[in-house]
Design goal:
The chain is mainly β. The protein contains two helices and 20 strands. Helices cover 2% and strands 56% of the residues. It has a 14-stranded antiparallel beta barrel.
């Protein structure tokens, strides 16, 4: 039997640590540029093609069409570690881009079929190896959280049916975690995996008032990967990524012929993200016992959103939004790999209609609360989560930019 590498447990603790994102935990709420512009308050919207990704039941209120967007994210994260010599900035590439698409079409008078492609979870974070004094030297340096990345796409086909003023939908979510890279000094884990979940929703419109609800199921994504250490052959490993369930409800009202408003409430089941167990793959010559169990113990959390849209003219629409998003990351097992905090989101945008076509642009500023972490639990040489190894003051700011083109079918 091959002896276990001393770096393997240190590195694989990172397996569930997926980086700083711009909604609760490591979720990404922005599924369209219209959503980005209105702080993602669209679950009860029956008018915009950019709302279909948030509640596919809305397809039944349209003849069909598509919305294709591209958004860029610029973020900056820093920490002033306790016992350190000053502030250290994360070395993550500041600019990242993500596409999104939703397409739908009429297949019968009251039935619509559509699908969305987006990136609902992910992003990345990297820290210099000497950032945290406790993890800067000796055997503990093998636990330094130097790099973590996840890219996870969702392909979501849906079927919507309308009867009278109400539409319902059901569909699948195919999650492809196609790029997972986890690093500490001297070693790397890379892997991928996929799984299928489900979503259901409903949307009703009565006069000027719309009411919507959308639910996406929890999913356990099996990850298959390799552990690579300089000078040794790779070890195949397995883990499971527990994605949370998501519930969104909203009310939309046309306050006048030009002005509309929507209020949304989101609930995310982050309590499923309690731990991760990383084990050698079947047949790996390192024994069958788990290499590591890393604890997170997150809690389910809420987000509160308001979106506004104003018809400046027949062809130009202005948008704005605000959201307060509560983190699911608790103090009991805080990790510098996901230095999450409560945040506020401020957004605005505009769209120009050109016949059946529309062009949209949007901007969002994400202001994270400063998070000062001061654990009294000493680091004992195992999992640093929830210990004094990560004590310090964490600050994050992010900006999102996006453009999209959409076309309505006649």
């Amino acid at each position: 039997m091959r002896p276990r590498s001393s770096l393997a447990p240190a590195l694989l603790i990172a397996a569930a640590s997926l980086g700083v994102a711009h909604a609760s935990g490591f979720a990404i709420a922005e599924l369209s540029i219209t959503g980005l512009s209105e702080a993602d308050a669209l679950v009860a919207n029956t008018n915009s093609l950019g709302a279909l990704a948030y509640n596919p039941a809305a397809m039944a209120f349209h003849k069909g069409g598509y919305d294709l967007g591209l958004q860029g994210i610029y973020d900056h994260t820093q920490v002033t570690p306790a016992g350190g010599t000053g502030t250290v900035a994360a070395t993550t590439p500041h600019w990242q881009t993500m596409p999104n698409l939703f397409w739908s079409d009429k297949i019968a008078p009251h039935i619509r079929f559509g699908f969305g492609i987006n990136e609902p979870y992910g992003l990345q974070i990297a820290w210099p190896a000497q950032t945290f004094p406790t993890l800067a030297q000796g055997a503990a340096s093998k636990l330094a959280p130097t790099y973590t990345q996840l890219r996870l796409f969702d392909v979501a086909p849906s079927l919507s049916y309308r009867f009278g003023s109400v539409a319902v939908d059901a569909g699948a979510d195919y999650y492809d975690a196609h790029r997972t890279v986890l690093g500490t000094p001297g070693a790397t884990v890379s892997g991928s995996g996929d799984q299928v979940g489900a979503h259901v929703g409903a949307l009703g419109r009565w006069g000027t008032v719309g009411v919507g609800i959308n639910y996406r199921s929890a999913v356990n994504v099996p990850l298959d990967g390799t552990f690579s250490e300089a000078g040794q052959s790779s070890i195949p490993v397995n883990a499971t990524l527990h994605l949370p369930w998501q519930l969104a409800v909203g009310v939309n009202d046309a306050l006048s012929a030009k002005l509309g408003v929507e209020f949304d409430f989101d609930r995310t089941g982050w309590s499923r993200f309690s731990n991760i167990v990383v084990s050698p793959a079947p047949g790996a010559d390192v024994g069958g016992a788990a290499l590591v169990t890393s604890t997170y113990d997150w809690q389910s959390s809420n987000a509160y959103r308001v979106g506004l849209h104003y018809a400046l003219s027949r062809h130009v629409r202005l948008r704005a939004g605000y959201a307060y998003d509560v983190t699911g990351a608790t103090n009991s097992n805080f990790s510098a790999r996901i230095p999450d905090a409560n945040r506020q989101e401020f957004s605005f945008g505009a769209s120009q209609r050109l016949g059946a076509w529309s062009l949209s642009a949007g901007y969002m500023y994400v202001l994270f609360n400063t998070r000062t972490y001061a654990s009294t639990t000493p680091f004992t040489g195992a999992d640093p989560n929830g210990t004094s190894a990560y004590n310090g003051t964490y600050k994050t700011r992010a900006q999102l930019f996006g453009i999209s083109i959409s076309r309505r079918f006649s």
